[in-house]
């Protein structure tokens, strides 16, 4: 269906045309002066230039041609605005089509298209820390939003499993358990099935090794050498690496599941490794590479560049591949296996230069099809109360599970007085805590930094996750009290416009903004647009709720219409919340 602004634009375009002006001037938007009107058209101001006529005169002529009945008022205001208020009848007639449609009247545009979203970025052998939170939350939401737009949306965790961290672990493990067969080059038997470490040991080994390598040059060299041998196929190191993967992936899956973040693909950096030699050969053959200080590079600088654009390094002088080689090869692999229309990366914005270099190399080398959209959505950082990247008290990186726990505990504290049984209360406070984190994050523009404010995020008032969930739970409970039967006919229920109050109309208007809000969220890949819609609608609902006695309403026509209204608010907002990756509890 058309969105309400589109439908109204059609009416005003027709009036422009009837008055003898180009209809393209008839575009209508939601009013930015809600105290004056609901919708506005500024087209007469622009038409004035083409027709050399006073804008107010044009507005007046157009207003006189507007179809009767659809609007309660059509006013012209100096210097040439057309201010509109829709009639209740036209409004309800319009929203009626949202009922019974799985997308609530939103027209999907992504059908038949495939998008890969690269948004996990976790590294094996290292626990998830706060830095992994934003890409996970934002990426999951973008995936859901694009799926709602009809895309086949594929999330890829793209695990970091191929870098120095593996070499560090191999090096440290060798010191701690020198008798293991993995280091014995003459060993030809089968390696043990069981990993020589648990996840907790692994999580202790990595930071220890990382710290040691910073203080001990020889140790660092050994780790680098081990990484290189691993990448070249050293049998024992590959076996250790496989153990690390097995132990780590199991743990990561559990952690992402707890976040309600799910990946269709669990691909790894190493999966692309096999393609690197052929890619390099091809780039060489195309004359795109050169040697710089012994390294193999591709120049990616363009004349129009305003910023520094160093060449993309694909192979170091010692033959080792780098992060960029892997990402170039991953695009190659994705084209080969999935033939996507678009690839979107949700990664910390500090990696922007890296992705610029990678994308340009892929374009120059024809590694990505011309038609494949390559988008880097660099997320800002989540900062602590001091405005600096979030740290533990002693300055270390904060593990994600501790952060989540702290916010869930805070929610539990706020729910202490509720009479819900303790075990259920714990489940609910965990759900609400997660919603507080996700909503607090997603309501900010993805590219901007924000301050993680535990008190504000967990508040049950204001633009917060708990407030939105509380509103939805309230609607659920109202509908339960009303006792809506399965045969309830929502479309029939909105036929009457008797006694539509101001707050009721505003709520219907809010809902009617859904399709436009969604379209913006998709086109700008911007989950925060959905949050704005959710918050406005929830707020409008609460005004309506305070103004009207819903349960005790005696007029059946009105009560039925309100029931339909509640069902639509619940349906639409619950869908929106789902696109943020948030789950709504039954009660709270
Ligand atoms: N593992 C990387 C990191 O921790 C992020 C990976 C992002 N995705 C990518 N295709 N490079 O920085």
The CATH architecture of the largest domain can be given as 3-Layer(aba) Sandwich
Radius of gyration: 29 Å
* Secondary structure category: alpha/beta
Instruction: Please give the domain count.
Output: 4
Distance between the termini: 35 Å
Average pLDDT figure: 95
Largest sheet properties: 4 strands, antiparallel
The percent of residues in helical segments reads 40-55%
Strand content: 5-15%
**CATH top-level class of the largest domain:** Alpha Beta
- Tell the overall outline: globular
Number of strands: 13
Q: Main sheet: which strands, in order across?
A: 1-2-4-3
CATH superfamily of the largest domain: HUPs
The number of helical elements comes to 21
And the CATH topology of the largest domain? Rossmann fold
In short:
The protein has 588 residues and is α/β, with parallel strands linked by helices.
Label this structure with key terms.
single chain, 588 residues, alpha/beta, Gyrase A, domain 2, Rossmann fold, 4 domains, four-stranded antiparallel beta sheet, four-stranded parallel beta sheet, binds arginine
Provide an overview of this structure.
With about 600 residues, this protein is of the alpha/beta class. The protein has four domains: about 5-85, Gyrase A, domain 2 (2-Layer Sandwich), CATH 3.30.1360; about 115-160 and about 265-385, Rossmann fold, CATH 3.40.50; about 165-260, no CATH class; about 435-580, Isoleucyl-tRNA Synthetase, Domain 1 (Orthogonal Bundle), CATH 1.10.730. It has 21 helices and 13 strands. Helix 6 (about 165-175) crosses helix 8 and helix 19 (about 515-525) packs antiparallel against helix 20. The longest helix has 24 residues, at about 235-260. The radius of gyration is 29 Å and the shape is globular. The two termini are about 35 Å apart. The relative contact order is 0.10. The mean pLDDT is about 95. Arginine (ARG) binds near residues 118 and 158. Arginine binds near residues 158 and 160.
């Amino acid at each position: 269906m058309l969105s309400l602004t589109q439908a109204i634009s059609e009416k005003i375009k027709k009036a422009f045309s009837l008055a003898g002006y180009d209809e393209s001037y008839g575009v209508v938007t939601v009013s930015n002066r809600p105290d004056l009107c609901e919708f506005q058209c500024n087209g007469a101001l622009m038409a004035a230039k083409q027709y050399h006529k006073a804008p107010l005169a044009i507005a007046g002529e157009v207003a006189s041609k507007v179809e009767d009945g659809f609007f309660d008022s059509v006013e012209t205001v100096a210097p040439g605005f057309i201010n509109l208020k829709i009639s209740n009848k036209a409004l309800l007639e319009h929203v009626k089509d949202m009922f019974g449609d799985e997308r609530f009247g939103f027209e999907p545009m992504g059908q038949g298209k495939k998008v890969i979203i690269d948004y996990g970025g976790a590294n094996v052998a290292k626990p998830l820390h706060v830095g992994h939170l934003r890409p996970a939350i934002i990426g999951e939401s973008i995936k859901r939003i694009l799926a709602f737009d009809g895309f086949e949306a594929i999330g890829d965790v793209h695990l970091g499993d191929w870098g120095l961290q593996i070499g560090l672990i191999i090096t440290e493990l060798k010191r701690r358990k020198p008798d293991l067969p993995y280091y014995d080059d003459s060993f030809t038997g089968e390696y043990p099935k069981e990993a020589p470490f648990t996840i907790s040991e692994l999580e202790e080994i990595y930071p220890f090794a990382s710290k040691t390598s910073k203080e001990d040059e020889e140790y660092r060299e050994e780790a680098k050498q081990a990484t290189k041998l691993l990448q070249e196929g050293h049998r024992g190191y590959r076996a250790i690496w496989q153990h690390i993967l097995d132990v780590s992936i199991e743990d990561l899956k559990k952690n992402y599941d707890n976040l309600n973040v799910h990946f269709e693909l669990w691909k790894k950096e190493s999966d692309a490794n096999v393609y690197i030699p052929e890619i390099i050969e091809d780039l060489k053959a195309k004359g795109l590479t050169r040697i710089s200080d012994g390294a193999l590079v591709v120049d990616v600088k363009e004349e129009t560049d305003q910023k520094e654009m160093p060449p993309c390094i694909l192979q170091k002088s010692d033959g080792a591949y780098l992060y960029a080689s892997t990402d170039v090869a991953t695009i190659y692999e994705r084209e080969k296996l999935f033939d996507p229309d678009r690839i979107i990366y949700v990664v910390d914005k500090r990696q922007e230069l890296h992705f610029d270099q990678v994308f340009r190399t892929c374009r120059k080398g024809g590694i990505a099809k011309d038609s494949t959209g390559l988008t880097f959505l660099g997320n800002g950082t989540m900062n602590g109360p001091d405005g600096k990247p979030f740290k533990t008290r002693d300055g270390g990186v904060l593990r994600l599970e501790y952060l989540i726990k702290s916010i869930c505990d805070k929610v539990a504290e706020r729910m202490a007085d509720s009479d819900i049984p303790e075990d259920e209360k714990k489940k609910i406070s965990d759900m609400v805590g997660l919603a507080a984190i996700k909503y607090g994050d997603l309501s900010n523009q993805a590219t901007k930094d924000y301050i993680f404010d535990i008190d504000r995020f967990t508040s049950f008032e204001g633009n917060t996750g708990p407030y939105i969930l509380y509103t939805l739970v309230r609607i659920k409970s109202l509908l339960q009290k009303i006792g809506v039967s399965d045969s309830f006919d929502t479309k029939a229920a909105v036929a009457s416009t008797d006694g539509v109050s101001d707050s009721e109309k505003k709520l219907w208007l809010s809902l009617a903004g859904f399709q436009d809000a969604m379209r913006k969220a998709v086109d700008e890949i911007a989950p925060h647009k959905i949050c704005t819609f959710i918050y406005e609608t929830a707020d409008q609902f609460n005004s309506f709720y305070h103004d009207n006695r819903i349960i005790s309403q005696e007029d059946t026509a009105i009560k039925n219409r309100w029931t339909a209204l509640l069902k639509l608010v619940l349906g639409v907002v619950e869908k929106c919340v789902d696109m943020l990756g948030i789950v709504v509890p039954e009660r709270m």
